[in-house]
Amino acid sequence: MRGKTAYAATMPPPMSPLTQPPIAPARRTQAERSASTRARLVAAATDALHRLGYAAASTNLVADLAGVSRGAMLHQFPSKALLMAAVVQASFEADYRAYRQALRGIADPLEQLLVISDIAWVQFRSPSGIAQTEIWMATRSDPELAAAVLPVHDQMFARSFEEQARRFVAAGLRDMQAARMFLYHNVALLRGLSLEHVLGTPRDVLDASVERMKQTVRDVVLAARANGDGTDG
Question: Which of 135, 175, 221, 227 is deepest in the core (most CB within 10 A)?
Answer without folding.
Answer: 135
